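User: Study the shape:
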Amino acid sequence: MSTERVQDKTGEQINDEDYVYTRYRGGTHQGRVDKVVTDEAGAHEEDVANPPKSDHAPIPKKMYPIASLPGKLRACGSGWLSATGSWLLPAYGIADQWVRGESSQHMRPRSFERRLGRLCTHRASVNVHNMRWPTLVACFIYGAFFSPALLCASPLHSGSSVSNPGHDLISVLSSAAEDPMVDGRVSDTVSEIQSRIAADESSQETRGDRVQLAFQKIEAIFTNRTNSTLLDFVHDMVASGLLPSKLLSFLNGYLDNTINSGLNKNPGLDGERIYPSRAAKDAPYSMPEEALRQAIHISSFSPSGRKGRKPVILVPGTAAPAGTSFYFNFGKLGSAIPEADVVWVNIPGASLGDVQINAEYIAYAINYLSALYQTKVTVIAWSQGGLNTQWAFKYWPSTREVVEDFVAVSPDFRGTMVSTLACPWLAGTLCTPALWQQGWDTKFVHTLRGLGGDSAYVPTTTVYSSFDEVVQPMSGEQASAILQDSHGVGVSNNHLQTICAHQPAGGIYTHEGILYNPLAWALTIDALTHAGPGDPSRLDIRKVCERSLPPQLSLDDMLGTEGLLLVSMSEVLRYTPKTFAEPDIIGYASRALGGEGRGIRRGRDLSM
């Protein structure tokens, strides 16, 4: 049967996206046509025009050759595929289907792993709680053993990313599009990126009308959907033309950019011992000192010129290398504070591995840079970077003595209720360690917040937005960004939409958008130039709030920062191995918490 002859009862052609009422074997369905398919069973045309999503899963546009999967499995020593399929397959009633391919030829996916992959791919678009138990179990098995993203995967040292034959973002996404476990729209996104890069566009001028147009597009992308995923945002961002070609070209080459290197050559320390510990109460490192030091990116350093310099450590968030994360925003802090030496930490695996290990890189960087510069340092952290830094403060108490200020932008100190947003496998049942750990009140979050960890250890400034698409909640008393002040060091928790209510700086700023928010910049500069945390009362708040961008940044910086979502999508896709749960709490932390973990102290709420 040809798809071209699929018609309704009146003889009208049925096409993709038509809204139809459909009868199928076993029931009825009303809704928009996802994909016109045909079925070898010989059903009536109207019966197959809009098949129920639970029975017909679309094949992604690009797939592994069917013959390649058994070969991969044989290479891994997995010889039980056919036996497993014989008893798993009937559980979810998958009939062999004829599905129209890109070449308009019909191909029949005969292999068990392909059909199971198709089912699981499509089921991932609906809530996992609606899956029948046999289906969910089968999808777990597919994800653990058959998915091309995981075949022959072995744990990589310190959660490093998978090596790919291509060294650009397009290659990573194109490779991921071949995995039946990954949403097929990845392929569409690749095509959009390629066409946008090919376009010849001039530089974006920072005129008010252009900035407002960009904000309108951002509002449309991030507020017009419900239950969106990272892929939804990335696809819409590229398709809307929000990102000009030169920015896409820059982001496309992020993997080879030296600003993201984790193999930096940094000077030794003269006489000061910070490894294996700087103080007796510091937790032990599990990573070798060479790896910890190489992750620190210092643009330039001269022992003779360090007097009067202010080292500022930038700590990245989840799924984005530090160099690219801050290239369009706080990497330019020196234009506002000339004495600042901005450095950053390129955590292996783009911070997608165990947050407890990620925190080791921050603890070491703090003590190393303070010893190198012979002065206190400032830490500016974005997203998970706030957790990394707070964990370092808690379990490496020597770091507290050498930090002058801590600025946390979009932090998730309580985790987030939308932690699976970035996991396009099995509706979030398969994810990366760090994303699991950042769920709402997970074991990791519970451990961090216990015994005073919900309060600041150094003067701390937090800045957050209600429109954060990654961390929620981000308003009210339960906002994940809030830290208490039971240690009495000084904290200011700054909610954009409260301080700049109904003004441009209090508008729709996303998780990454706060990196270019004028209030976030003003508070950061205030914290670095005064004792204690950033204080809105010291600012010309009317002037700050009426701006959409800080004076140090341009429209290109704003758009480049939003483009970080593409890099995050790439890093999440290429990270391996995926896991089904968060890692265990590391020994030193579980021993410290002991039986007292249930008694979490709550300091006073200083949110604004």
About this structure: The chain has three domains: 3-48, 161-256, 264-563+582-596. The mean pLDDT is 77. The first helix runs from residue 45 to 48. Residues 264-563+582-596 form a domain with the Rossmann fold fold (CATH 3.40.50.1820).
